[in-house]
Amino acid sequence: MQRYNIFHQIHKGLRAMLYETALHIQHADFWNIDETEVAIEKINEVIRLFDKHAFSEDNHVFPAVEQYDPAIADAFEQEHIKDHLLGKSLAEAITRCQLAPVITEKAEVAKEVQARYIKFMVFNLEHMAKEEEVLNRILWRYYSDEELMAITRQIIAEVPADYIVRYERGSFQSGYCILEAKKVVVLNKFLNTEGRINTLIDLLPSIKLTYELLTVDSQKMYDEVMGQQVPGKK
Ligand SMILES: [Fe+2]
Prior knowledge:
Mean pLDDT: 88
Bound molecules: fe (ii) ion
Number of helices: 7
Distance between the termini: 23 Å
Number of strands: 3
Largest sheet: 3 strands, mixed
CATH topology of the largest domain: Four Helix Bundle (Hemerythrin (Met), subunit A)
Strand content: 5-15%
Helix content: 55-70%
CATH superfamily of the largest domain: nmb1532 protein domain like
CATH class of the largest domain: Mainly Alpha
Number of domains: 2
């Protein structure tokens, strides 16, 4: 019988993100400041999401393992510490790259950023594969699929939304404005419910959501609204 793989959806999304970012870095011209900035932004997002993911596993998945196999839970917690350190070392190279005063130095440090990214990626690909192989064996032995799904629901409930929606008065040409840096969408507070829904549908293509972090129902609705296949999705 096919068992419920608690890691499947999120690991699939994280892996896709690692590959896409690696490909982006591969094609980026690090002698071009704008391209370097875009690549850096992508890497920072990877570090942020992996940290967040490790935090939810530490809090929801590992305690379930620890109850029956404390030594294995501890070994994986140690891996998360190593993962965090690799992310920190990558972030440190990124800061040096951003602060480098001249382009020659920037391009030089960018090589180090790329090397550290590869290290981070390889570690995480192996780590996720190991989690699926070793931890699933324990989880499937001691927990039912329903219990494992309940853990997933707890994790999803904790995931903060990518964007916060606020309603304010102001002169909005299109009924909304997006503050990208703060991840805030401001809607005209004078819109009625139908207007709010239509405006949210209108703005959906202009915001970048982490598709894999949406619930299955939200993914379906998102696909319907977008009316097209989402890139990176099976
Ligand atoms: Fe993990």
